[in-house]
Specification:
The protein has ten helices and 13 strands. With about 325 residues, the protein is of the alpha/beta class. It has two domains: about 200 residues, 3-Layer(aba) Sandwich (Rossmann fold); about 120 residues, UDP-galactose 4-epimerase, domain 1, CATH 3.90.25.10. The strands form three sheets. A seven-stranded parallel sheet has the order 3-2-1-4-5-6-10, with helices on both faces. Strands 7, 9, 11 and 13 form a four-stranded mixed sheet that branches. It is globular. Bound molecules: nicotinamide-adenine-dinucleotide (NAD).
Length: about 325
């Protein structure tokens, strides 16, 4: 039986962040009641699109207890966490608390309140450097960043504690998430931006030089990535929820990628074309610790199980990101919590 939205309350941790806010909006449109937990360390209250907001920290169990006592939660999307590759090496303790302890707390409290379904935001960073492409769910797991390690440890905690009997869980390994829902004033709010495309867009709009790391083992020497639009991603999450009951396995891992990959230099060209910027200054530098040369997803399993295929093109995603960035630059004051 497929899950229906009537009277169902869904909890989204990290629901004031980039992906969580898009997911909140979609689940609301599908008539779910949406509860959001966010400590606003990164996310913004402005992006809250649910029914009820709790400023709470997933690493603090007493704060979670209140949310679970006050709401009859049907399923959890666990997105909250820290996700900067380089920072994760320098702030291991913080990543351990937010990503690992936070996930452990969510598992424990979900079990205590007998919440049956848990869908977790993992990352392609669990794969690290691979030799064979595209990367499937069975490819070897060798994270090269501490961030990637925290995601792998979290997946294992879920597998160990949330995969038997009554409990069902899905870990979604995201590749690079792009785009915005500009019409509904949703997009990425990291300040300063942490992902490559938002960094480039901001700099190119501001007519500042951009930096391309160019010692990757790829054709044009810049990193190659698989990009997926945040709106396509939200839809995949919704389909997980809708179909989780029909999936025979109690624990499942799915790659969410598009298999359409681009080099960073190709992405820069597209951005310049969309912004109509002819002259940009490019500084070349070396890749950072923890950055693989290529990340290309094999998303066949998600296609098969969810009946889902990403539809939004990279050009459309980039255009929406440019509109979002321009909106943010014009409305700087709005983005203070
Ligand atoms: N964006 C991507 O390309 C990408 C790729 C792979 C995996 N992911 C994962 O997806 C999830 C969502 O990513 P995003 O891009 O929306 O990130 P984001 O930073 O925009 O959102 C994360 C949200 O979690 C909140 N948060 C952080 N620590 C918290 C804590 N201890 N308690 C409560 N709230 C906390 C932040 O305030 C933020 O609003 C993250 O777990 C991230 O690791 C993202």
């Amino acid at each position: 039986m497929q899950i229906k939205s009537k009277n169902k309350t869904i909890l989204i941790t990290g629901g004031c962040g980039f992906i969580g806010s898009h997911l909140s909006l979609l689940l609301k449109k599908k008539n779910f009641r949406v509860i959001v937990i966010d400590n606003l360390s990164i996310g913004k209250k402005l992006l809250f699109k649910g029914d009820r907001f709790y400023k709470a920290d997933i690493s603090k169990k007493n704060q979670l207890e209140k949310v679970f006592k006050e709401n009859n939660i049907f399923a959890i999307f666990h997105l909250a966490g820290l996700s900067k590759l380089t920072e994760s090496f320098k702030k291991k303790k913080s990543y351990k608390i937010n990503n690992i302890k936070g996930t452990q707390n969510i598992i424990e409290i979900a079990k205590k309140y007998k919440i049956r379904y848990l869908i977790f935001s993992s990352s392609a960073s669990v794969y690290g450097k691979q030799k064979k492409f595209p990367i499937s769910e069975n490819s070897p797991l060798k994270p090269i960043s501490y961030y990637g390690k925290t995601k792998l440890i979290s997946e294992n905690l879920i597998k160990k504690n949330f995969s038997k009997g009554y409990f069902k869980s899905i870990c979604l390994r995201y590749f690079n998430v792009v785009g915005s829902n500009y019409k509904n004033k949703l997009g990425e709010v990291h300040n300063p931006p942490i992902h490559l495309i938002p960094i480039f867009i901001k700099k190119i709009i501001e007519k500042k030089p951009i930096e391309i790391r160019s010692n990757f083992k790829t054709k044009d020497k810049s990193g190659v990535r698989d990009y997926i639009d945040v709106n396509d991603m939200a839809l995949a999450h919704y389909l997980c929820l809708k179909k989780i009951n029909k999936i025979r396995k109690n624990f499942l891992i799915l790659n969410l990628g598009s298999k359409k990959y681009f080099s960073v230099k190709e992405i820069v060209k597209t951005i310049c074309k969309k912004i109509k910027s002819k002259k940009i200054k490019i500084l070349y530098s070396k890749k950072l610790r923890g950055e693989p040369d290529k990340l290309i997803a094999n998303g066949q399993l998600a296609n098969k199980i969810l009946g889902w295929k990403p539809k939004i093109s990279i050009e459309r995603s980039i255009l929406n990101m440019i509109l979002w960035e321009k909106y943010k630059l014009k409305n700087k004051k709005k983005f203070v919590n």
